[in-house]
């Protein structure tokens, strides 16, 4: 990841770029030529750290690939530092560009990953790609000098490549990056790419015949099995935060002499193993779910049939019970009705007798009243 560039430094860079552009346009004799062919002019183990030559390229990707390839041969690596809003200017800086920052305010006592060191050394080297009106890109060197020593491409995470391959492996595995593999797949129909693939295949076959053994990443391969065995081992007390990946790399180097493998390769293999296990577990779960689903459907059908039978039986029983209850209630009502009729007849007789008795008493009262009135009249003086 590119380092952060202070605003003052960025302004100085923009001013320097503007001055160089003015010199470029004002000088009619200065011309940019096509990118020179790649040449390994640096002796092994010694790097001159030279910047790429100013050149013109048909696209940004071509410019970036050329600059990165040149950097890898001369002992350093580049990364995108800043980009203009319209993407007409892109700045590539050395990965050691800028000063390291301790954003989390860590101290040697509080730092957990003690082996993690920043690439940044305050290096000022940077180049720039500028898009022209005709669509081509021009490479310009802004600051050529470095303040650090060079190292092989395997020592830079940006340029690190897998040094052992897989035929038909996953993207990003097998010695090439995902970008390169996609580019080859897009151009696989052309004759030149086909010839190139055949040549590369012949070179791989020749290299594999010279080696003692071919180490592949295919599922079930030796590397895969070793990594899987190491994953099953219990972690040691002081194995660090890499979860035993460093130990796995050491085991692979010990058991497979001559293999070139890095921690990121082991991380990728472990991810593939976990993905394969997850897919297998998912398949088993899907089969179990399908069986459980079929069993549940059968159980539901059986339950529905049983419920229907039970409902029919219950309806029949209810109908029978209702009929019995109705008959019993009718009988009870008839008995109650007869009893009420009998009581009503008795009460009617009592009422008739009471009426007759009251009529006799009324006649007696009338007779006594008339007698008393007649006696009273006779006593009155004439």
From TrEMBL:
Coiled coil: none annotated. Pfam families: FAR1 (PF03101). Residues 301-312 have a biased composition (Basic and acidic residues). Residues 68-149 form the FAR1 domain. Residues 195-207, 283-300 have a biased composition (Acidic residues). Residues 1-56, 187-216, 280-312 are annotated as: Disordered. Residues 33-46 have a biased composition (Low complexity). This is FAR1 domain-containing protein.
């Amino acid at each position: 990841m590119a380092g952060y560039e202070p605003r003052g430094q960025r302004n100085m860079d923009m001013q320097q770029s503007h001055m160089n552009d003015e010199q470029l346009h004002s000088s009619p004799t200065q011309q940019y030529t096509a990118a020179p062919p790649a040449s390994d002019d640096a002796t092994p183990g010694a790097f001159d750290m030279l910047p790429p030559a100013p050149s013109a390229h048909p696209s940004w990707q071509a410019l970036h690939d050329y600059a990165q390839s040149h950097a890898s041969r001369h002992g350093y690596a580049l990364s995108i530092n800043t980009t203009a809003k319209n993407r007409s200017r892109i700045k590539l800086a050395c990965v050691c560009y800028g000063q390291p920052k301790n954003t989390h305010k860590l101290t040697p006592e509080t730092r957990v990953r003690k082996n993690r060191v920043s690439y940044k050394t305050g290096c000022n080297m940077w180049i720039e790609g500028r898009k022209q009106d005709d669509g081509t890109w021009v490479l310009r060197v802004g600051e050529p000098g470095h303040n650090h020593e060079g190292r092989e491409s395997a020592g830079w995470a940006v340029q690190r490549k897998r040094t052992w391959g897989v035929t038909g492996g996953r993207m990003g595995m097998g010695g090439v990056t995902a970008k390169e593999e996609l580019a080859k797949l897009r151009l696989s129909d052309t004759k030149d790419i086909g010839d190139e693939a055949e040549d590369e295949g012949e070179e791989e076959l020749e290299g594999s015949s010279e080696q003692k053994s071919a180490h592949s990443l295919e599922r079930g391969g030796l590397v895969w099995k070793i990594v899987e065995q190491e994953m099953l081992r219990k972690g040691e007390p002081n194995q660090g935060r890499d979860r035993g990946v460093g130990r796995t790399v050491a085991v692979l180097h010990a058991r497979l002499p001559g293999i070139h493998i890095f921690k990121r390769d082991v991380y990728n293999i472990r991810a593939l193993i976990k993905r394969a296990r997850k897919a297998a577990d998912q398949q088993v779960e899907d089969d179990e779910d399908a069986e459980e689903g079929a069993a549940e459907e059968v159980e539901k059908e059986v339950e529905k049939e049983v419920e229907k039978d039970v409902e029919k039986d219950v309806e029949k029983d209810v109908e029978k019970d209702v009929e019995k209850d109705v008959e019993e209630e009718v009988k009870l009502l008839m008995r109650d009705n007869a009893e009420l009729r009998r009581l009503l007849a008795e009460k009617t007789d009592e009422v008739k007798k009471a009426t007759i008795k009251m009529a006799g008493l009324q006649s007696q009262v009338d007779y006594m009243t008339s007698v008393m009135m007649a006696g009273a009249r006779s006593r009155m003086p004439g």
